[in-house]
Amino acid sequence: MNAGTLPSVPSALPDELPIDAARDYFTGLQDRIVAALEQAEGAAFRSDPWQRPEGGGGRSRLLEGGQLLERAGVLFSHVHGAALPPTASARRPELAGRPWQAMGVSLVLHPRNPYIPTVHMNVRLFVAPARHSGESDVFWFGGGMDLTPYYPYEEDARHFHRTCRDALAPHGADYYARYKKWCDEYFFLKHRNETRGVGGIFFDDLDEGGFDAAFALVRDVGDAFLPAYMPIVALRRDQAYGERERDFQAYRRGRYVEFNLVYDRGTLFGLQSGGRTESILLSMPPLAQWRYDWAPESGTPEAVLAGYLKPREWL
């Protein structure tokens, strides 16, 4: 297999669902995002295609040690299995035991400069085909994006949220408010009583209006990522920093690790379903640290972040 070749995935999905169109969109989105990041970094991403023993595969695109991106992972996967893992059927126990397929794109970018926020985005499709004539095929989409700054700027957060709002606007006036609230509630570290960052949008179990309508919304969210994030990168990438800022960045990255390993359903699903560990944990920062009973001194630039780690209205 060539280094950049995407593995094929045999389809066991209902013929009436345009699965090929979804797969084409997701692979194309991965390619577009990687191309934009390669141009910004001035270096190529590694392409790592893989196969899953139980069924399916994917392609991990990654870069480590860049001048702009200390670690970046942009992942496509299309995998399937014989029985839904517990994380996928917990809220829908009637689906337990069904075969399943999942596909999508997920990314986490950890910039080197502490003034550029870490960012996460994913868009995905999940299908649980009927096992017999008494059941119906079930599908749902999910996804979203959220921003995790270390030294927050109001204008950056507002731009990010405005782009998310505008992407959802064609689908209904209430979508942004609903998905923004969902993001605030989902990306929350209960044991720290703080949000992971300044939020964004998050949604799951989306099948409103049927496959075509839900898929159109997911495409608009995926297409909004580069306009939401890259202007922030361009604005902050040349801002000077030193060891103090890098030290605080590593401390706050520890909270990112805590969320991903304790609460993130995508991470848990990947590990429970026998996913590829290297790809699942690519979301982790390359460097992080923890301190015992420490908080930034009042009045310092580092102390400003605490005022942003709670839900608020940005627009």
Automatic annotation (TrEMBL):
It is found in: Cytoplasm. Its main location: cytoplasm. It comes from the Bacteria. The keyword Metal-binding applies. Its cofactor is a divalent metal cation. The keyword Secreted does not apply. A divalent metal cation binds at H110, H120, H161, H191. One of its GO terms (cellular component) is cytoplasm. The record marks H191 as: Important for dimerization. The active site is at H120. Pathway: Porphyrin-containing compound metabolism; protoporphyrin-IX biosynthesis; protoporphyrinogen-IX from coproporphyrinogen-III (O2 route): step 1/1. Keywords: Cytoplasm, Heme biosynthesis, Metal-binding, Oxidoreductase, Porphyrin biosynthesis. GO terms for molecular function: coproporphyrinogen oxidase activity; metal ion binding; protein homodimerization activity. Its EC number is 1.3.3.3. InterPro entries: Coprogen_oxidase_aer, Coprogen_oxidase_aer_sf, Coprogen_oxidase_CS. Substrate binds at S106, N122, V123, R124, G274, G275, R276. GO terms for biological process: protoporphyrinogen IX biosynthetic process. Homodimer. This is Oxygen-dependent coproporphyrinogen-III oxidase. It comes from Achromobacter aloeverae.
